[in-house]
Amino acid sequence: MKPKRIILIRHGESEGNVEATSYETIPDYALSLTQNGRDQALAAGKKIDKIIGDESVYSYVSPLHRTRQTFEQIESVLGEKNVKTVEDSRIREQDWGNLRTYEQEKNIIKERSDYGIFYFNIENGESAANVFDRVSTFFETLHRDFLKENYPQNTLIVTHGVTLRVLLMRILRWSVEDFEKVYNPTNCEIFVLEQNSEGEYELITPLRTD
Q1: Which candidate, 165, 147, 159, 175, places its Cα nearest to that of 203?
Q2: Is 11 among the residues known to form the active site?
Q3: Which residues does residue 190 pair with via DSSP β-bridges, in sequence order?
Q4: What is the pTM of this model?
Q5: 13, 93, 126, 180: which one is catalytic?
Q6: pLDDT tens-digit profile, the chain (210 residues)
Q7: 5-203 CATH pick, 3.10.150.10, 3.20.20.70, 3.40.50.1240, 3.40.50.1110
Q8: Distance (Å, whole) CA 100 – CA 3
Q9: Which of the following is catalytic: 11, 75, 126, 160?
Q10: How far is CA 169 from CA 32, 83, 131, 141, 199, in A?
Protein backbone atom coordinates (compact mmCIF):
# COMPACT_ATOMS: atom_id res chain seq x y z
CA MET A 1 0.00 0.00 0.00
CA LYS A 2 1.30 3.45 -0.90
CA PRO A 3 2.25 5.67 2.03
CA LYS A 4 -0.23 8.43 2.74
CA ARG A 5 2.55 11.00 2.71
CA ILE A 6 5.81 11.65 0.83
CA ILE A 7 8.17 14.22 2.36
CA LEU A 8 10.99 15.71 0.30
CA ILE A 9 13.79 17.83 1.74
CA ARG A 10 16.88 19.50 0.36
CA HIS A 11 20.10 19.22 2.36
CA GLY A 12 21.22 21.91 4.79
CA GLU A 13 23.62 24.72 4.00
CA SER A 14 26.92 23.30 2.70
CA GLU A 15 30.43 24.62 2.23
CA GLY A 16 29.64 25.12 -1.45
CA ASN A 17 26.55 27.19 -0.65
CA VAL A 18 28.56 29.77 1.30
CA GLU A 19 31.89 29.67 -0.54
CA ALA A 20 31.78 29.07 -4.29
CA THR A 21 35.56 28.57 -4.45
CA SER A 22 35.08 25.33 -2.49
CA TYR A 23 34.34 23.65 -5.83
CA GLU A 24 37.94 24.34 -6.92
CA THR A 25 39.45 21.99 -4.33
CA ILE A 26 36.66 19.79 -2.90
CA PRO A 27 34.77 17.22 -5.02
CA ASP A 28 31.06 18.00 -5.07
CA TYR A 29 30.18 14.73 -3.34
CA ALA A 30 32.54 15.53 -0.44
CA LEU A 31 31.19 18.98 0.47
CA SER A 32 30.11 19.05 4.11
CA LEU A 33 27.45 20.96 6.00
CA THR A 34 28.34 24.18 7.76
CA GLN A 35 27.38 24.57 11.41
CA ASN A 36 24.38 26.58 10.21
CA GLY A 37 23.52 23.68 7.89
CA ARG A 38 23.56 21.24 10.79
CA ASP A 39 21.33 23.57 12.80
CA GLN A 40 18.94 23.82 9.83
CA ALA A 41 18.82 20.02 9.55
CA LEU A 42 18.08 19.60 13.25
CA ALA A 43 15.26 22.16 13.03
CA ALA A 44 13.94 20.37 9.93
CA GLY A 45 13.96 17.09 11.86
CA LYS A 46 11.69 18.66 14.46
CA LYS A 47 9.32 19.88 11.74
CA ILE A 48 9.20 16.44 10.12
CA ASP A 49 8.63 14.83 13.52
CA LYS A 50 5.64 17.12 14.00
CA ILE A 51 4.30 16.32 10.52
CA ILE A 52 4.33 12.54 11.02
CA GLY A 53 3.21 12.60 14.67
CA ASP A 54 2.99 9.07 16.05
CA GLU A 55 3.48 7.48 12.63
CA SER A 56 6.64 5.85 11.24
CA VAL A 57 8.78 6.68 8.22
CA TYR A 58 10.93 4.90 5.61
CA SER A 59 13.85 7.07 4.47
CA TYR A 60 15.81 7.35 1.23
CA VAL A 61 18.99 9.41 1.28
CA SER A 62 21.40 10.62 -1.39
CA PRO A 63 24.90 9.28 -0.58
CA LEU A 64 26.62 12.67 -0.94
CA HIS A 65 28.18 13.84 2.31
CA ARG A 66 25.92 16.85 2.83
CA THR A 67 22.72 14.82 2.45
CA ARG A 68 23.95 12.06 4.74
CA GLN A 69 24.92 14.67 7.35
CA THR A 70 21.51 16.31 6.98
CA PHE A 71 19.78 12.99 7.56
CA GLU A 72 21.93 12.26 10.62
CA GLN A 73 20.49 15.37 12.26
CA ILE A 74 16.93 14.50 11.20
CA GLU A 75 17.27 10.92 12.43
CA SER A 76 18.55 12.13 15.80
CA VAL A 77 15.08 13.63 16.27
CA LEU A 78 12.97 10.88 14.70
CA GLY A 79 14.69 8.03 16.53
CA GLU A 80 12.76 4.75 16.28
CA LYS A 81 10.06 6.35 14.13
CA ASN A 82 12.51 5.90 11.25
CA VAL A 83 12.14 2.18 10.55
CA LYS A 84 14.61 1.90 7.66
CA THR A 85 17.18 4.01 5.80
CA VAL A 86 18.28 3.35 2.22
CA GLU A 87 21.09 5.24 0.48
CA ASP A 88 20.40 5.56 -3.24
CA SER A 89 22.78 7.24 -5.67
CA ARG A 90 19.98 7.85 -8.16
CA ILE A 91 18.72 10.72 -6.00
CA ARG A 92 22.12 12.46 -5.89
CA GLU A 93 22.47 16.00 -7.23
CA GLN A 94 22.84 16.82 -10.90
CA ASP A 95 26.42 16.06 -11.89
CA TRP A 96 28.37 19.24 -12.64
CA GLY A 97 31.49 17.43 -13.80
CA ASN A 98 34.78 17.61 -11.96
CA LEU A 99 36.53 20.34 -9.98
CA ARG A 100 35.80 23.78 -11.42
CA THR A 101 36.90 27.34 -10.86
CA TYR A 102 34.60 30.11 -9.70
CA GLU A 103 34.67 31.61 -13.21
CA GLN A 104 33.72 28.27 -14.76
CA GLU A 105 30.88 27.98 -12.26
CA LYS A 106 29.52 31.42 -13.19
CA ASN A 107 29.76 30.64 -16.92
CA ILE A 108 27.89 27.34 -16.51
CA ILE A 109 25.11 29.04 -14.55
CA LYS A 110 24.72 31.76 -17.21
CA GLU A 111 24.84 29.35 -20.16
CA ARG A 112 22.35 27.01 -18.49
CA SER A 113 19.98 29.89 -17.76
CA ASP A 114 20.21 31.15 -21.34
CA TYR A 115 19.71 27.71 -22.89
CA GLY A 116 17.10 26.29 -20.51
CA ILE A 117 17.81 24.47 -17.25
CA PHE A 118 16.12 21.17 -18.09
CA TYR A 119 17.89 20.38 -21.35
CA PHE A 120 21.27 22.09 -20.84
CA ASN A 121 23.99 19.44 -20.62
CA ILE A 122 26.91 20.43 -18.40
CA GLU A 123 30.25 19.42 -19.95
CA ASN A 124 31.50 16.20 -18.28
CA GLY A 125 28.26 16.26 -16.28
CA GLU A 126 24.50 15.94 -16.76
CA SER A 127 21.39 17.77 -17.79
CA ALA A 128 18.30 17.86 -15.59
CA ALA A 129 16.77 15.58 -18.26
CA ASN A 130 19.43 12.99 -17.37
CA VAL A 131 18.48 13.36 -13.71
CA PHE A 132 14.85 12.75 -14.69
CA ASP A 133 15.83 9.47 -16.35
CA ARG A 134 17.64 8.07 -13.32
CA VAL A 135 14.99 9.36 -10.93
CA SER A 136 12.41 7.46 -12.98
CA THR A 137 14.22 4.19 -12.27
CA PHE A 138 14.34 5.17 -8.58
CA PHE A 139 10.53 5.36 -8.63
CA GLU A 140 10.39 1.78 -9.90
CA THR A 141 12.25 0.73 -6.74
CA LEU A 142 10.08 3.00 -4.62
CA HIS A 143 6.88 1.43 -5.90
CA ARG A 144 8.23 -2.07 -5.23
CA ASP A 145 9.04 -1.00 -1.69
CA PHE A 146 5.50 0.29 -1.26
CA LEU A 147 4.32 -3.30 -1.72
CA LYS A 148 6.30 -4.52 1.27
CA GLU A 149 4.34 -5.71 4.27
CA ASN A 150 3.94 -3.06 6.96
CA TYR A 151 5.48 -0.29 4.86
CA PRO A 152 5.19 2.91 6.96
CA GLN A 153 2.67 5.70 6.48
CA ASN A 154 5.42 8.11 5.45
CA THR A 155 8.27 8.22 2.94
CA LEU A 156 11.14 10.66 3.48
CA ILE A 157 13.53 11.56 0.65
CA VAL A 158 16.64 13.59 1.51
CA THR A 159 18.10 15.00 -1.66
CA HIS A 160 19.29 18.12 -3.53
CA GLY A 161 17.84 21.19 -5.21
CA VAL A 162 17.56 20.21 -8.87
CA THR A 163 16.84 16.58 -8.01
CA LEU A 164 14.05 17.56 -5.66
CA ARG A 165 12.42 19.62 -8.41
CA VAL A 166 12.77 16.66 -10.81
CA LEU A 167 11.17 14.36 -8.22
CA LEU A 168 8.22 16.75 -7.96
CA MET A 169 8.08 16.93 -11.75
CA ARG A 170 7.91 13.14 -11.94
CA ILE A 171 5.27 12.73 -9.22
CA LEU A 172 3.06 15.65 -10.28
CA ARG A 173 3.55 15.16 -14.03
CA TRP A 174 4.85 18.65 -14.66
CA SER A 175 5.80 19.79 -18.13
CA VAL A 176 9.33 21.05 -18.79
CA GLU A 177 7.91 24.56 -18.72
CA ASP A 178 6.37 23.93 -15.29
CA PHE A 179 9.71 22.63 -14.02
CA GLU A 180 11.61 25.68 -15.19
CA LYS A 181 9.14 28.09 -13.53
CA VAL A 182 9.76 26.65 -10.06
CA TYR A 183 12.51 28.20 -7.94
CA ASN A 184 15.20 25.95 -6.52
CA PRO A 185 14.41 24.91 -2.92
CA THR A 186 16.23 26.70 -0.12
CA ASN A 187 18.44 24.70 2.24
CA CYS A 188 16.36 22.26 4.29
CA GLU A 189 13.14 23.41 2.64
CA ILE A 190 10.48 20.72 3.13
CA PHE A 191 7.86 19.68 0.58
CA VAL A 192 4.94 17.48 1.62
CA LEU A 193 2.76 15.43 -0.73
CA GLU A 194 -0.37 13.70 0.56
CA GLN A 195 -2.69 11.16 -1.03
CA ASN A 196 -6.09 12.46 -2.01
CA SER A 197 -9.32 10.45 -2.06
CA GLU A 198 -8.42 9.06 -5.50
CA GLY A 199 -5.03 7.80 -4.35
CA GLU A 200 -3.08 10.49 -6.20
CA TYR A 201 -0.44 12.61 -4.50
CA GLU A 202 -1.07 16.32 -4.14
CA LEU A 203 1.50 18.88 -3.06
CA ILE A 204 0.27 20.71 0.03
CA THR A 205 3.37 22.90 0.33
CA PRO A 206 3.26 26.26 -1.48
CA LEU A 207 5.64 26.61 -4.42
CA ARG A 208 7.74 29.66 -5.26
CA THR A 209 7.49 30.27 -9.01
CA ASP A 210 8.30 32.93 -11.59
Answers
A1: 165
A2: yes
A3: 9
A4: 0.97
A5: 93
A6: 899 999 999 999 999 999 989 999 999 999 999 999 999 999 999 999 999 999 999 999 999 999 999 999 999 999 999 999 999 999 999 999 999 998 999 999 999 999 999 999 999 999 999 999 999 999 999 999 999 999 999 999 999 999 999 999 999 999 999 999 999 999 999 999 999 999 999 999 999 998
A7: 3.40.50.1240
A8: 40
A9: 11
A10: 27, 27, 11, 17, 18
